[in-house]
Amino acid sequence: MIKFFKSEGGHATVRLEEFEKGCWIDMVNPTDDEVEDVIAFSGIPEEMLKAALDEEETARCERDEGAFMCLLDTPTITDTDDGDTYETIPIALIYNDKCLVSVSLRGNSVIGDFISNRVKIDTAQPMLFILTFMMGNAKRFLSSLRQIDKKSLRTQAELHRSMKNKELIQMLALENSLVYFSTSLSSNIGVYNKMEKMPVISGNEEYKDLYDDVVIETRQAVEMCNIYRDILSGTMDAYASVISNNVNTVMKLLAVITLIITIPTLIASLWGMNVAVPFGDSVWGFWVIIGICIAVTGVTAFFIIRSTNSIKFKTARPHRRRRNRRDGDR
């Protein structure tokens, strides 16, 4: 899909019916024919226009044939049967002396703010457009990280009530999302470091201030992402230990029950053989055997439970280092 836009008085963005010089072309998952049309309009190399159509493309900035491309990673939310999935996809911002082009595989919320005029832009100033997008993209990362944190807290609250595989899978998906975010933010930081040396930014005070704000917001997102990832990783390890302890408790209980049941089963088996046994001719023999089973079982259960509860794990105590008194110490 291709759309043409241009800023008018007051930086209000209006949609155009066809290409005009100085316009902004928004391309969302374009076809090969649409790419060829944009190449004919703008003269931008095909490699630049198709760079963002590869989901595995890394963030970078480059120049070629008079065109400048800034390829960044941007967060996206995908609805699935198991809930929302947070991912990152590349988006390319390209400009030359004819026009400005944005290319992505899916619609972008920051670009949507530009189109709806919630954020004012000027298509006649491509670098200001790119810096404004960077700021919106960094805020989008921060917003997604806060959503992931809130979702993680809700999932942890559900795990406290009941241990289910569904919640654990959700926690694992959130941890994977944080890994993607961390990698993408690091790649974006690398792009920003290269752009800092560009004369168009370093020589313009307005651009420089906006660039500094973008770097601050992005670094804050990196720190938040690392903190949330460490917390979530530690939480997953803690729940794994809790599940392991629960399994050990259940297995210990089953082992105790098995040992207790073994005693009356053994007694009943011995008295059921075709040999002469005590109380075989007694009228009260059945009840005597039942009493023996109960007594022996109770004593056995008492000692087994007592022995299992008395098991303690010994931890090594740290050794205190003794200070060797040197000659002359007092």
Descriptive report:
The protein is an alpha+beta fold and 330 residues long. It is built from eight helices and seven strands. The protein has a seven-stranded mixed β-sheet with strand order 2-1-3-7-6-5-4. Strand 1 and strand 2 form a beta hairpin.
Average pLDDT metric: 82
**Per the principal axes of the C-alpha atoms, what is the gross shape?**
rod-shaped
Distance between the termini: 86 Å
The helix-strand sequence is EEEHHEEEEHHHHHH
Walk me through the topology:
Elements: E1 2-7, E2 13-16, E3 24-28, H1 32-42, H2 46-51, E4 60-64, E5 67-80, E6 83-95, E7 100-104, H3 109-115, H4 126-161, H5 165-195, H6 199-202, H7 205-271, H8 285-309
Parallel strand pairs: 3-7
Antiparallel strand pairs: 1-2, 1-3, 4-5, 5-6, 6-7
